From TrEMBL, chain A:
Segments traversing the membrane: 20-42
Highest taxon above the source species: Bacteria
Coiled coil residues, start to end: none
The Rod shape-determining protein MreC beta-barrel core domain, residue ranges: 137-268
Pfam family, one: MreC
Region (Disordered): 289-317
GO CC entries: plasma membrane
GO terms classed as biological process: regulation of cell shape
Annotated protein name in UniProt: Cell shape-determining protein MreC
From TrEMBL, chain B:
Transmembrane segments: 34-63, 91-109, 121-141, 147-172
Name assigned to this protein: Rod shape-determining protein MreD
Keyword set, alphabetical order: Membrane, Transmembrane, Transmembrane helix
Source organism (scientific name): Erythrobacter ramosus
UniProt entry tagged with the keyword Transmembrane helix: yes
Length: 317, 184
């Protein structure tokens, strides 16, 4: 198919000029894009207000999608439940008995814990969530892993706040709009989270790999104490997350730690809780001393250079 | 005449006498569909890894290939700006890459004015894969081998989807030009 003849300019001055103007405008658009791209890589937060407005518009529409998403997952689970109902029933009964025993043990431990905490005069770690929100959707085309939630500054959400589901950590708030916020998911390759093993105090960092898994890197190198199936929880270092929230389960052992699977998968999550920054005063002080510039969503690492939300400043490390 | 053949006075756009297409449809359908294409992947899935190719970009390619001359040469910049707002890429990446894609297609078209479906698919495929790779590089994340492997299906999908997108755009074009308005 040939292009329409109207687009061949010929001798017409007018047609020639409009063709030239088209090229000029397109070139100007490309140059403008390059400049904006450089600016947003250099200052990732520069366009946050603009994106906030866009996500405010998108969030209500996405709520409908979120309902069908969680609904359809329940639908498939129901069907597969019919196929292995009998076997599952027996297994569940056995598990239930075990769980009852463990629960009794946990009660005893809880009581002991409270007594010891009372002795040490520690305050309770449970925080009251700032807002409950629906996980609206995520950036499915970009390699950056961001998600949108349906609560923003109007409900008190601020950048840096941890976002948790009923199962564990989802991520932390990166940018806020009026009624929506953008969340940096744990699997984003710029996300770093200090964790420890649930049963003892093996300290590590959980880094996103960008492919849905986390890389667990131990702080103390030596003999790798991790085993497949170990649960990693937040250690509370860095001050953003309260300690003891489930993050990931080790799936594979590597020389310097392991590869872990998320406990709280965003695709299976409908509602999330936004919690206040755990040690807000300490975080503010850290940011003042380490980063003089305004960096609202600076990382949750206790290292001197907190991981920035985007790769712009990652070169410093 | 209509009693013999009810479609005697009509073509694929509908009846020809006394009918006209809606002006708003003629102008807005390409832009609206491309913007919806940018929005759709964000709304439907919340997942751990990038799965879906940029539907907005594929629709832009589709409209540009199926209907050359309909979108102005500079249309990549404003549509890309909208895509940047929701896609999660750093702001400016789609403005740059979509503008470049439009210019490249224009240059290819002046070089090879007579094109067919296979050449269109080839051009769209090469541009879609280059776009995928460039978007990966400018995403602001440090590119790891794992990330690259995980994003590979996106590249494959964006090439394989072009024929379907082209048919879809052709259908939308019929809707755009359908003579739905009665002139009294």
């Amino acid at each position: 198919m040939a292009p329409p003849s109207s687009r061949r300019s010929g001798f017409s001055k007018k047609a020639q000029f409009s063709l030239f103007t088209g090229y000029l405008l397109a070139g100007a658009g490309a140059v403008l894009g390059l400049a904006l791209l450089a600016l947003s890589l250099w200052q990732p937060a520069a366009f946050a207000p603009l994106r906030g407005v866009a996500s405010d518009v998108v969030a209500p529409v996405g709520t409908g999608g979120a309902v069908t998403r969680s609904g359809s997952q329940g639908f498939f689970a129901t069907i597969s439940g019919y196929f292995n109902a009998g076997q599952q029933n027996a297994e569940l009964r056995r598990e239930n008995e075990l769980a009852r025993i463990r629960l009794a043990e946990a009660d005893a431990i809880k009581a002991e814990n409270q007594r010891l905490k009372g002795l040490l005069d520690l305050r309770d770690g449970e925080a009251k969530p700032v807002a409950m929100a629906r996980l609206v959707g995520s950036t499915a085309t970009s390699v950056r892993r961001h998600a949108y939630i349906s609560a923003g500054t109007s409900s008190g959400v601020a950048p840096g706040m941890p976002v948790l589901s009923e199962r564990g950590v989802i991520g932390r708030v990166l940018e806020t709009g009026r009624n929506s916020a953008r969340v940096l998911l744990l699997t984003d390759s710029e996300s770093v989270l200090p964790v420890r093993r649930a049963k003892d105090n093996v300290i590590a960092f959980a880094e996103g790999r960008g492919d849905g898994l986390l890389r667990i890197r131990l702080v103390n190198l030596g003999v790798n104490p991790l085993k497949v199936g170990d649960m990693m929880v937040t250690s509370g270092a860095g001050g953003y997350y309260r300690p003891g929230v489930a993050v990931a389960v080790i799936a594979k052992i590597t020389p310097d730690g392991g590869i872990a699977r998320l406990v709280a998968e965003p695709s299976a999550t409908n509602f999330v809780a936004v919690e206040p920054v755990h040690e807000a005063a300490a975080v503010a002080e850290l940011e003042d001393t380490v980063l003089p510039g305004p960096s609202p969503a600076a990382g949750a690492t206790p290292t001197p250079t907190p991981a920035p939300p985007s790769g712009a400043a990652a070169g410093e490390e | 005449m209509e009693r013999i053949d009810p479609r005697a006075r009509s073509d694929i756009y509908g009846l020809r006498i006394n009918r006209a297409p809606y002006a708003w449809r003629v102008r807005s359908v390409p832009y609206v569909t491309i913007m919806l294409g940018s929005l759709l992947p964000v709304l439907l899935i919340a997942d751990l890894m990038p799965l879906f190719p940029s539907l907005g970009f594929l629709l832009l390619l589709g409209w540009r290939m199926v209907r050359p001359g309909l979108l102005p040469l500079w249309a990549g910049a404003p549509l890309g700006a909208f895509d940047d707002l929701v896609s999660g890429q750093p702001f400016g990446s789609a403005i740059l890459l979509w503008s470049l894609a439009m210019i490249v297609i224009e240059l290819i078209e002046t070089r090879f004015p007579w094109r067919g479906f296979w050449q269109d698919w080839f051009t769209a495929g090469v541009i879609a894969v280059s776009y995928w790779f460039a978007a990966l590089l400018v995403s602001g994340a440090s590119v790891t081998p794992e990330m690259f492997i995980v994003a590979l299906p996106q590249a494959l999908l964006s090439v394989m989807l072009y024929p379907i997108i082209a048919r879809m755009v052709a259908g939308l074009d019929r809707f755009r030009l359908a003579r739905a308005r009665k002139i009294d």
